[in-house]
Amino acid sequence: MNIWSALEPSLLINLTIIVPLIGAVLVVLTGKYPNLRETVSIATAITLFTLVLGITDNTFNQITMATTWVSLLSGLEIAFSVEPLGVLFALVASFLWIITTIYAIGYMRGHNEQNQTRFYVCFALAISTVMAICFSANLLTLFIFYELLTLSTYPLVTHAGTDDAKRGGRVYLGILLGTSIAFLLFAILGTWVSAGTLDFTPGGIFTDVQSDGLIALLLVLFCYGIGKAALMPFHRWLPAAMVAPTPVSALLHAVAVVKAGVFTILKVVIYIFGIENLSQIMTTDLMLYIAAATVLLSSCVAMTKDNLKARLAYSTVSQLSYIVVGALLASSIAAAGAALHIVTHAVGKITLFFCAGAIMVASHKKNISEMVGLGRKMPLTMVAFAIGTLSIIGLPPMAGTWSKWYLVAGALEADKLIIVVVLTISTLLNIVYLLPIPIKAFLTPPDENQQPWSRAETIKTPLPSLIAIGITSTACVALFFYPQPIIDLINLIPDVSTEFRGQS
Questions:
Q1: Spatial separation of the C-alpha atoms in residues 89 and 135, rounded to whole Å
Q2: What does the UniProt entry say about where the protein is found (predicted)?
Q3: For 466, what's the count of Cα atoms within 13 Å in the CB-facing half-sphere?
Q4: pLDDT at 287
């Protein structure tokens, strides 16, 4: 039993939000002492993860956990409650915060980055908002912290202070705030006016009283208003943010921002619309096929990118839409696959970004065309890259196998054969744009002008970064052989199941 699970439930929720804030203050106070500052960062991350483990214990023991901060109007509160999907996201984010902090120590020092204290502070603030998003009890609370996450990560995107960084930051802020104001805010207002509540409720909150047209419009507004899910054409913020340091890219792609987007879509589908009701909404298929198109189009764009981080960025756009597809298939098993893909994509993609950053710091190479023979010089890093690649592709024995399996099963359950075709083609495209990278690194012979490789030329990845890469690549394999604890948690989500039931 986790020591924190004995705490009063409302205190446990509050601590998950407050502890990263305390960590941010301590980082500021210890900023002049790098070793102490980074020790504080790791200690805070470990503390948060153990708190989330306590919440996880309570969830499996079916202990109700909720707390209210402020009551604005009758039925309209800033409040938090624990449900299994939020616990799943909190586990991913809090665990990977530890690993990303370890990685950042090697990267930030190895690359001689400026403003390192600000980096760790903003990272902690972002994780605090993520915890609040995980446990939001209603759409109002989620909206507030969803926007705070955007604002807290903006300084990380513009960290370098260059013209490119500032330009990328403007695109990042413009699209994310723009979609929230133009679409998400109106979706929430429409939900409040029509349903009279914003509370997340198993089975959804809409009844026969609301018009079909209004509900159809609200679904479109939610899908595009949640800009962090990066549905086309509102996806450009994500590649634009690649000007940030690699630990920030890892934060954006695996720990916080994009996962907050797809988590929010999945939560809205399950607790606002209801999975059982989704197939009756007129615009469900429209948004489903837009998500499917995003899967394929972004993969095609990824193939054209020689810059490694840019290719990985468009890969993320594609993989996020896997989760949106799973949410919109109106299938319990597809929703389970979407929830599982939050986990498997997180460990696979963070491994790839960690490797990309290590390659850049150690060898100063950013383009894939420059990586011929790099596997001989950075063998551990490139082996980890190969593992992350196989997981993203979805080949056994890697974690990504299971989430893709459930997504395909869900598409069959929903009788959407076109989605099975899309997922199959996407997997083939994953192979085309990812697998040649480790092949080029290990198997392609060097050019005639290159000197023969020798052990003396081995490039060393910074040790903290290598440790982080080792942990995440190991997780890619471990989650293939031992996914059951995650699956058990997913099966606790209302109306979500990993059991194939076929057509009713």
A1: 9
A2: Cell membrane; Membrane
A3: 13
A4: 96
